[in-house]
Amino acid sequence: MSIGVLIAIRRAAAFGLVAGIVASLGYMFGSAILTPDLWIEPLGALVKTGPAIVLMLVALLMLANR
């Protein structure tokens, strides 16, 4: 929740987006090591983290252009 608050505050948005990307990648790699069977889960617990990372990267690039 704190990362979401950082993203919502304009001055801290870049830091929040980078923190969100790092946290998401850590979540993906950690759970891939501990519970690799989540990759084939029907609801896609790990699969939907990839598009979220892409969206954060796009938001970070858009923020840099402003």
Explain what the structure shows.
The chain has 66 residues and is an all-alpha fold. The protein has one domain (2-65). It has helices spanning 2-8, 13-34, 49-65. Helix 1 packs antiparallel against helix 2 (13-34) and helix 2 (13-34) packs antiparallel against helix 3 (49-65). The chain is elongated and about 40 Å long. It starts with a helix and ends with a helix.
Feature tags:
66 residues; mainly alpha; 3 helices; 70% helix
Q: Which structural class fits the helix and strand makeup? A: mainly alpha
Rg value:
13 Å
DSSP helix count?
A: 3
Distance between the termini: 25 Å
The total of beta strands comes to: 0
Low-confidence stretches: none
Helix percent band:
55-70%
* Beta-strand proportion: under 5%
Please indicate the count of domains.
Answer: 1
Which series of helices and strands comes N to C? HHH
- What summary fits the major beta sheet? none
Shape: elongated
Global mean pLDDT: 89
